[in-house]
Amino acid sequence: MNGGNWNTVTLIRKKRDGVALSSDEIEFLINEYTADRIPDYQMSALLMAAFINGLDDGETDALTDAMLNSGRVLDLSGIPGNKVDKHSTGGVGDKLSLILAPIAASAGVPVPMISGRGLGHTGGTLDKLESIPGFRTGLSLKEFQHILSRHNLVLGGQTEEIAPADKRIYALRDVTATVESIPLISASIMSKKLAEGIDGLVLDVKFGSGAFMQEQERAIKLAETLVGIGRRFGKRTVAWLTDMNQPLGYAVGNWLEVYESIMTLRGEGPEDVERLSCLLAGTMIWIGKRAGSLEEGVERAYEQLRNGEAFDKWLDLVGEQGGDRSVIEDPSLYPEASCKSTLEAPRSGYLTSIDSWKIGMASLELGAGRKTKDDVVDPKAGILLRKKIGEQVQKGETIATLFTNNRQSLKIAEEMVTGAIGIMDSKKQPGRLITHRVDDDGIHRWEKTTL
């Protein structure tokens, strides 16, 4: 801790003029803001200065450290094994946490997972979990640690005790047009994850129409920054670059995605969802020291699906956190939305595009997300796509089914989904689902298609 007592305006001016702030200066600013001695308008000015002029590695590490230590840092040393979590930068139809967490945990890796809610056009893990009747995500830290020690797995939400400075600064960034800064994004993600007391972290950094980082080059830069922070904080960190130019799987919406997760855990899910889930879970198993290589870790992940242990782990966790196990064992028990609409292909041809952003926004319109922070999410709302890019369709064939409890939203959502799907005479192959791995040794193009 430092004993500095700087003038806030002087530090804002310094960053505005492109001069790097010291770690002590950044610590002072974060501590004072968390203690309500710096107002929102001054922190907003500082964030804009950082957004425009950037932060170097030292500043990014200092910001991460200050936000990390603004609250409690969990001590999980009493739980045996290397604790490993996963973080996704957000995508449409991204239900992977619900699949890979029980896979890794059933393979012996403790998984303490603190997740977030939906943001913009992307769904949040907490919203998906809370679509399960009774499932509790608002756990105290004591409960969080108890469930982890008992099941090797826990899925909860961020509490006021975990990185409170990040929670406040994140809200400011959202309303001051400073969200897209790679250093600010990286410090936000890593401060929360490091506060979990983890030993390793696997990152799914997405690019494309449905991602926050649409350009692959910026996504690679974000992955490099995140991995660099992990390395400098002594945590084994591996990032994967994945394509979000079409939704993952077929289901978009909270319960619909839980249902697709259940089917994947039973070995009956979409190929892209299973493949990416097993790659990420396999990476967790590898860096969690339950496999001698990445390939062995991925094979172990597939085995946990085949032998049913991952699904059993998921059932146990749902019950432990208050969820209704019966709808996991038999998803047909879950009631369907009151309004349903089927969209048909207007012509024959090949599916050439599915704009993930438009699909996400249509799902939001149906009630699967929030337009304002006070909106109530409809767990039954969403979209079930029937085709992937490159597949042939016939005129009149069903290409999507929309679900909602708000009939008035259907027409707008139908137009959005129709506008998101392109059908042409010529076949177009989709982009590679997994393109790069980023780790301590650099950036590696991923050419394999069997993992």
What's the Cα radius of gyration? 22 Å
- The name of the CATH superfamily of the domain at 84-160 and 194-329 reads Nucleoside phosphorylase/phosphoribosyltransferase catalytic domain
What distance lies between the first and last C-alpha atoms, to the nearest angstrom? 46 Å
Secondary-structure class? alpha+beta
Strand content: 15-25%
Tell me the name of the CATH class of the domain at 84-160 and 194-329: Alpha Beta
User: Percent helix among the residues?
Assistant: 40-55%
CATH architecture of the domain at 84-160 and 194-329: 3-Layer(aba) Sandwich
Largest sheet: 5 strands, mixed
Number of helices: 17
- Which strand order does the major sheet show? 1-4-5-13-14
Number of strands: 14
Shape descriptor: globular
Keywords:
four-stranded antiparallel sheet; alpha+beta; Aldehyde Oxidoreductase, domain 3
Give structural notes:
The protein has 451 residues and is an alpha+beta fold. Among the domains are: 84-160 and 194-329, Nucleoside phosphorylase/phosphoribosyltransferase catalytic domain (Pyrimidine Nucleoside Phosphorylase, Chain A, domain 2, 3-Layer(aba) Sandwich); 337-424, Pyrimidine nucleoside phosphorylase-like, C-terminal domain (Aldehyde Oxidoreductase, domain 3). It contains 17 helices and 14 strands. The strands form 4 sheets. Strands 1-4-5-13-14 form a 5-stranded mixed β-sheet, sandwiched between helices. The chain has a 4-stranded antiparallel β-sheet with strand order 6-9-11-7, with helices on both faces. α2 runs parallel beside α4 (57-68), α9 packs across α10 and α12 crosses α13. The radius of gyration is 22 Å and the shape is globular. The mean pLDDT is 93.
